Fold this protein.
Amino acid sequence: MKNFALIGVAGYIAPRHMKAIKDTGNKLVAALDRCDSVGVLDNFFPDADFFTEFERFDRHIDKLRRRGTKIDYVSICSPNYLHDAHIRFALRNGADAICEKPLVLNPWNLDALSDIEEETGKRVYNILQLRVHPSILELKKRVEEEYPKRDKKYNIDLTYITSRGKWYFISWKGDLNKSGGVATNIGIHFFDMLIWIFGNVQHQEVHYSEPLRKMTGYIELERANVRWFLSVDRKDLPEEIKQKGQRTYRSITFDGEEIEFSGGFTDLHTVVYQNILDGNGFGIEEARPSIELVYRIRNIKPVGFNERAHPLAVE
Ligand code: NAD
């Protein structure tokens, strides 16, 4: 049985990590959050020690180490801009880190983490759960078999509109320096998955950008051209989706064919954890291409709508 500590335990995503720790037969021994609304711990690990101050958490982890209780993994569910600091804490304490996406905001943060991996001999793992989604695995297999026999790239339209209320813009998610904005915070899942299946980025354009609310653009990958549109603004939902009272519209088309992957989302964190425990898992170099892409997307100047624009974004 492995011992875990968790940072950011009061947040939205933390229960998926606690479930993964529990379902893989392991134990949460200590948790940290600045906020003390952590009754959710009772659903998973009521005996875990809980801290609201980093210094006391640090002292406790150090005490455990000196008394012979090793923390094997630190799970990191804190806001994006704190990930690299929390990863360093994990590695310096002799634990591997299992960190939420995006692993970091800027590519050079990855280099610093690689150095610490080398210094400590400990590893950094990233939750990139779409890579273990059954439909995405099937698509990857299909592309690997089919692409060598084709004479042209695939055409992909990626549309992800997930409405968020006013709170979103007050929270750290609505602060560009803390979350990175929609392409980084929400798009990273899809960009990582597309690069993983369709190859490296050869060209990127941003057509329109309100970085915290909506962004749209175009990327050329080795095996596909992708028109993408990401938004957290409910006004962008297609009319028929609004009529049905739904708040999210997700669509990926592949030469016009819809890729169905709306189901099967719930236990993907557990699958990622099991892979890590089995000696696999996605490390710094796996995360790098999508971190580099979203960094460029955040920083290049939008060129305006052109013939490569996403059709829904232009409307
Ligand atoms: P959240 O705001 O609900 O939770 C973050 C938690 O971190 C909060 O409880 C907050 O109090 C705590 N926190 C903030 N600063 C801290 C600090 N210095 N020390 C300790 N705790 C601190 O956010 P969330 O939606 O749970 O997102 C957390 C992470 O998970 C983010 O990196 C986000 O991008 C990622 N996420 C991943 C997925 C996914 O599908 N894989 C989905 C949502 C969020």
User: Anything to note?
Assistant: The chain has two domains: 3-126, 130-314. The two ends are 54 Å apart (CA to CA). The domain at 130-314 is CATH 3.30.360.10 (Dihydrodipicolinate Reductase; domain 2).
